[in-house]
Prior knowledge:
Layout lengths: L1 E10 L3 H19 L2 E7 L4 H7 L7 H5 L4 E6 L7 H15 L4 E7 L17 E7 L3 E10 L7 E7 L2 H17 L4 E6 L7 H13 L6 E6 H10 L6 E4 L1 H14 L7 E5 L7 E5 L16 H13 L3 H16 L13 H14 L2
Parallel strand pairs: 1-2, 1-3, 3-12, 5-10, 8-9, 8-10
Antiparallel strand pairs: 4-5, 4-11, 6-7, 11-12
Helix pairs in contact: 1-9, 1-11, 5-6, 7-8, 9-10, 10-11
The chain binds 1,4-dihydronicotinamide adenine dinucleotide and magnesium ion.
Amino acid sequence: MRSHAIAAIPADGIGPEVISAGLRVLAALAQRLGDVRFDVETFGWGSDHYRKHGVMMPADGLATLKTFDAIYFGAVGAPDVPDHVTLWGLRLPICQGFDQYANVRPTRILPGITPPLRHCGPGDLDWVIVRENSEGEYSGHGGRAHKGLPEEVGTEVAIFTRVGVTRIMRYAFGLARSRPRKLLTVVTKSNAQRHGMVMWDEIAAEVAQEFPDVAWDKMLVDAMTVRMTLKPRSLDTIVATNLHADILSDLAGALAGSLGVAPTANIDPQRRFPSMFEPIHGSAFDITGKGIANPVASFWTAAQMLEHLGEPEAAARLMRAIERVTGAGILTPDLGGTATTRDVTEAVVDAIHSSN
Ligand code: NAI
Ligand code: MG
């Protein structure tokens, strides 16, 4: 029996709804496969913890998480706590503390989903966005001077290091190589931002030499939004900075039908620390507690987690079950359906048990 220790952090809003759905599906997979076990411990960190204790997680939170094989994360964000507090109090310390420098975001149009683009069906949009996840525009550098005075200054400094850019570029080229089309698009803004972004372009060209079998091209981020919308078939693997990829992957999620299906993995490729798996979406206060949150993103990221844990068969089985359910039109309201979180979850559980 193989066993994997998973730390679940459902956190805020619809986080607990989609993570409990995901844990139910993981339990069904373990039952179906019979030779794998998931030892899950759930942590009640997030905005409730903040309201009670003034911090989003305990001071020894990272030390606790370090002993797990993977982290399964919901979402942070609450109407009454500032977003920079929730984000910098829980999600970013985990990503940065565990040096999860590769943020991997697959996007595909699942069967049964009508995407917003005309003439774009399943198979026409199949991307993986690789987001640099440890530095760039989200490195936390900067500050404010003369606070509250008319001459107040705020700076937000983007940090790009040769080590950081080289390692994400290697990861992206390697991922592109592992996919059938072996095609990578490197996104920057090296016309207007002439230091760090030009360095990105130079390092991309250097790393490309190590991957002669991968075809690659460059795009400016603004033009990239146009290409994603008008020529989705021309793209496969995409690499971009922390900020650019954050924005592009929300667009990608929308083009695939809903943010409610978009997953993401925060990976430490060197496996020194546990990696973290989460839906891309946030805590969605507008639908919290209504039982209609789409659990597909949390299922898909669970499939990414299974891949990372060395359980490709379980991952593939889970993806087939998800596609069977979306293909059968069992969809939550964000995808135009009438199914509840529970309906979708039970249908995926049934598909896991009934498929061979
Ligand atoms: P959001 O992703 O929470 O919601 C955007 C829209 O998408 C809402 O209309 C929501 O109902 C819908 N939506 C999102 N996930 C859905 C799902 N699974 N099923 C059905 N519909 C879904 O983004 P928003 O509203 O900008 O932010 C809300 C809070 O979440 C904020 O506090 C924000 O800071 C936080 N946030 C946290 C993230 C994280 O923990 N990784 C990521 C994005 C936002
Ligand atoms: Mg985002």
